[in-house]
Predict the 3D structure of the following.
Amino acid sequence: MSQDSPRILIVADDLTGGNACGALFAEAGLSTMTITGTGGGGSSSGTGLPDSGDGAARIAGALDDYDTVVVNANSRHMQPGDAAALTDALLRSAGPVDLVACRIDTTLRGNVGPTAEAALRARQDLASTTGSGRVMGLCIPAFPSSGRVTVGGRQLLNGKLLEDTELRNDVRSPMRTSVVADILRENTKLRCHTVELSTVLAGAEAIRADVLKALAAGTEVIVADALTNDHIDLIAHAVADLSQEENLEWVAIDPGPGSLALARALLPKREPGVILGVSGSATEVTRAQLAKLDEDPTITVLQAALDADNLPDVQATVERVRMAASARATTRASASAQTEPVRAIIVATVVDASDLLELTDEQSELIPRRLAQITAEVLATATLTGLYTTGGDVTAAVLGELGALGMEIHTEIVPLAVGGSIVGGSAAGVPIVTKGGLIGDAGTGVLCLDHLMQTAGMGRA
């Protein structure tokens, strides 16, 4: 799985479930979006199958911009053959992906088996043409936080077997069994093996040995018991560890927690990134905020290098940022010195009053453009976990230079300081905080950076 920008495709059986699954990935720090239509221009066949290139282009384009793309296939109540055909078409049109997940209902209603089998066959066909390894399904249907657990290969809802709940009277998908493997085998030829709870409780080596036996027996889908999220993580890491050794590709089949655990297990550890701040404001308020930020040894505030025209020198400033990003901050804890990576770098045209210059109108107009170019250059060569912009002109110039459509608004940190994420362009999905130059007090910059650090999982302990 690619390190910097994974391509994770989740095909969901309905919209609300798909959105809930996507939310798990977003909360884990993966940029995520959902696509609510599968056919672009609609379907003349009545099955929901894409009948133009629009749907494929939408999915492939979204995978270029986001770590995780959730496609709502709305296949839960289709005829089994139609659900399988739609899943197959979506996967084949998506282009290269690192991980495929079939998002299924937490109570296993609908076309669980046909969609899983279609996903496996589509990935197997691709593997046969590329010479890659064996494709396996991993079904961990437990969703502990929602009262769904799996014991003895059976799915329980709040401690009851599915067929002993009101779901037995479901009009469209009456539940006659809670045996996960039987549900997967309905209308399919899937060969399944269940890793029992006793094996999970015995640990990773026991899971590994059980899965290896199942592989030797020709199993296509591993079903696993789980009572807790820790069990889910343990199973995911155990099978992920087998991937290179046995040359395996896994397709996740579950409501969300299993897919996320598998993605985390397969993702290589990312190099720590930094938050980049860009300030083009010369106000006293902004200078006070920069001074307060500079008190934190893990935040570097540096003045943009200037050229002969007193404008930000793009290449010279980018080099300053690169050097700052590779440095380590020294902090004092008790009697010993400790170092930790720089977490944020703020590029400012004015750091203190001595930096104030008399500027022409033309220079004032060019400064935001130069800062935007600096931002784009840094983004092209460094891992950024967030972006902080001060000044409306600077924010507009930065978003324009990055080719962004705009930003998705998530929260107001303080009045007129907004947190969200970039939509579209080369920085799609990157968390961003924007603030006017006259907004807030000396501590507002700290609040803005803290928000970005928490979003990126870099918050203070």
User: Anything to note?
Assistant: The first strand starts at residue 8 and ends at 12.
